[in-house]
Structures are given as structure tokens and as C-alpha cells.
Specification:
Largest interface: A-B, 36 and 36 residues
Number of helices of chain A: 4
InterPro entries (chains A, B): Acyl-ACP_TE_C, Acyl-ACP_thioesterase_NHD, FATA/B, HotDog_dom_sf
CATH superfamily of the largest domain in chain A: Hotdog Thioesterase
Radius of gyration of chain A: 18 Å
Strand order of the largest sheet of chain A: 1-3-4-5-2-7-10-9-8-6
GO molecular function (chains A, B): acyl carrier activity; fatty acyl-[ACP] hydrolase activity
CATH topology of the largest domain in chain A: Thiol Ester Dehydrase, Chain A
Helix content of chain A: 10-25%
Family (chains A, B): Belongs to the acyl-ACP thioesterase family.
Organism (chains A, B): Prevotella fusca JCM 17724
Order of helices and strands of chain A: EHHEEEEEHHEEEE
CATH class of the largest domain in chain A: Alpha Beta
Protein name (chains A, B): Acyl-ACP thioesterase
CATH architecture of the largest domain in chain A: Roll
Strand content of chain A: 35-45%
Oligomer: homodimer
Number of strands of chain A: 10
Chain lengths: 254, 254
Amino acid sequence: MEKLSKIGRYDFLAEPFHCDFSNHLFMGHLGNHMLNAADFHSNERGYGMNYLNEVNRTWVLSRLAIEMVDMPKAYDRFSVETWIDSAMKFFTGRNFKIVGESGHVYGYGKSVWAMIDLNTRQPVDILAVRDGLINEYVETEYTCPIEKSSRVKMSAEADPIRSIDTYYNDVDVNGHINSVKYIEHVLDLWDLAWYKRHTIKRFEIAYVAESHQGDCLHFYREQRDTDIDFNVRIAKSNGGGEEAEVCRCRVLFV
Amino acid sequence: MEKLSKIGRYDFLAEPFHCDFSNHLFMGHLGNHMLNAADFHSNERGYGMNYLNEVNRTWVLSRLAIEMVDMPKAYDRFSVETWIDSAMKFFTGRNFKIVGESGHVYGYGKSVWAMIDLNTRQPVDILAVRDGLINEYVETEYTCPIEKSSRVKMSAEADPIRSIDTYYNDVDVNGHINSVKYIEHVLDLWDLAWYKRHTIKRFEIAYVAESHQGDCLHFYREQRDTDIDFNVRIAKSNGGGEEAEVCRCRVLFV
């Protein structure tokens, strides 16, 4: 395999039907493009899903933070740059930069990934894959000037806002609820009237457990220090059993 | 504007996160690619949304039928070919052909579009736009060997299956529930266990009225002649008022 540059760059179009009422790309679709960029980048460099599935392993997204100056508008062409900025035994850090054609920086992303064994679903040693190949691609100089995700602390008093069922279209090839669907469901907690007055400055999500089609998802929300800054917890239940936490988010608006 | 060929061809990738549990592209995402192809095709030829919005008009999708042999799998590259096969005063017919890299034909689509005035929301004369420019692009020879949509007849006894609320992510730039979201919601009426035994052979949807964020959508389903052939009606209500029909579908499985 030819040695590629550490930073991958992938071009996307803000498709008109992927834009919200204000003609700006939905955050969920941006998240999807970022996951695609991560997938293309790692596959091209030999440590992506295509290879991992042969050795019964897969990447699992653990945390994702996205911080935007503004969002691409319909028909805007933009690139997602992505690179690994740290590789440890059980966690890898991956950064993103979203850049327009003229060089305008729309925003950045930071993510943390684990690797699991497809049978045991337990974490495995990332550096054991292809003799630590990923280490050859760690890029620490290229800047990604946003904060890492920090642990979202929620009190037991967070308000239950909504419960939704999960269906066929929510499920990915692993049989789990698609990572991007959580983003969409969380952002749906605010209505159109809210989005007419606010835009999303920063979105953070930490994935705690997997959920499956048929699970009911429960959304709890609580305000942080200001009235435009929120924590959200998603819990799942199935058939009346106890709730189990699925993910936690922070959503900061401006 | 340079005179382009009558048939447009647009390339897409079956993105991994747009695929279902079986690793095949979701019908909703295919529908989205088809709408993109239609949008690119008409814009490039001077009678697309970009021009229409300047003269206070827009295209409205009235009917869409998709009939598939099989669905692209994750990472498959495919093209959507699209062309106008008839242009009348109030309706235009647009066909689609979904072709793989090696020439494999995945399936076809047929659609009917109207044009409306953005203020009155009333139909306007399509042939009056740019002196009937669209007529120069009508292609009647290229084959699209699937049946047109036919009117879906539903009895008053169709079973109410589900009611769902609509949120921020359902709404497009026109302030309406996105055409593709209806497709997803309809296909969500069957669960994963059903899709493990059946695939979608043909999907038809006729759009009757617009719905908006905050509307509650009610889904009614009834079997046709066989137990793999269904009609679905979507109705909307808002704030406890009477239900009004939004669209009708047919879903045929194999």
C-alpha cells in the first residue's frame, strides 16, 4: 500500500434536501460526512473497517464533539479533513476540520474511538493491529483549536422530555441504532421556533451503550449555567424493563 | 447556456452509514439521490429551482414510483440517470434509471412533477417558463420499463398502525415535511424481522398535501391482493383538529 499523507481530505456537497428550514446543512448530516471521512481515511491507510472486519474487529465511536462558526449552505462544496492525533492501546483520537472551497473554516471536530472484538464486544489493543500501523499516521502539529469533550454531569432531576420508539431506518449494519440518529433525535428536542432564534455552536456526544431496534429511547434534558447550554441524557428500555443509559450530550447554542 | 444532452447522469456512492442492517442502501437514501439528480439535471438545463426561485415558482413532486431488482450495497458506486419524458401544461414526467459501474441496472423510477407559484401555492403553466424551454429536453426513446403509478384505493377500514410527531429534522427549506421523510416513516411500519425475510420490490408515493413541523402524522395500512402488497395512507392532524390526507403509498415486497 502506497504511503499516504497523514491528513485525509474528502469533498462533500451540502445537498439541498439535507438542509434545514434556514437552508443550512443539518448537524446530523454533517456528522454523517465526518464519519464517512473517518471511514475513508482509515480504510485507505489499512486500519479501517474493511481490514478490521477480516480480523473480526471494528471501530466504535466513543465520543464526538463538533464546534461550528457557521454551517455550509445548500449547494456549498466543502471538505472534511481528518487525521489521527493520538493512538493509545484502547483509545484513538481523531480530529476534523471542515473547510469551504475558498478556505473558509466552518468548524472543527474531535472524536475518540475504541476498537472492539466483534464476538466478545470487548475492547482490544489498537496498537496490535498490523504491528501498530496507525502510529505511522499520528499527526500532532496540525491544529484543531476546540476543547476536548468533557464528562457531562447530569443530576437525577433532569426533565424527561420525550420517549420515542426505534424502527428499521434507525438501525445500521451492526444491528445498532445508528450514531447519527441519536444526534438527530437529540436536536429534535428543540422546535423550529427555537432554531429560528438560535444556532448550534457546539455539540458533544458520548456513547455509553448500544441500543437496538425495538428499544424505546427516553430523553432527559437539563440546563447548564446559561439558558442556551444544555445537557441531554438518552436512556433505553425494552418491554417495560429498567432504563439503561445509552448516551450523554451537551448542546450549546448561540 | 450550453445545450446539454437530454439525459443527465449523476454519480453516487452507497455510503456505509446510509445502509440498512443487511448492508444495502436504504430506499429513503436512494430516493434522496434521485431527487438530487432531478435537481441537478433541471438546474443545469435552466428550468431548476435556482432559476424558478427567481421568478417565484418551484417544482413540487406529485408522484414517485421506484422499482428495484436489487439495491446497491455499501461502498458500491452507482449512477442515477434522469430525463424528462413528457412536459404538459400542469405536469411533467421524469424518469430515472439506477445503474452500477459495470452497467448492472439496479432499477428504475418514474415521477410526476407540478409547478406552483410560491405565493399562491397554486399550479402554474410549466410551458410558460422560459418560452417552453423544457420541451427542448423531452426524451421519449430511452426506455424506463416500469409501470406508472396508479391511484391507490383505500377503504375506510384500513388499520391505524401508528401516529408520530414531526420535528425540526423533518422539515425542509420550504418549511414542509421533507418528501424523503415520508418514505422513511412508511417503511418503518415494518420491523427488522420483516425485512430479514422480505425486500422492497416496488414503492409508490403520491403526495396529496403538505404537512408542517408540529403536525401529527397518522399511518393507516391495508393489504392488497397478496400478503406482501400493501397500501398506506398518511393523514395529518394538528391540535386535535380533523385529520387531512397527506399522501398515499403502495409497498410491494418480494
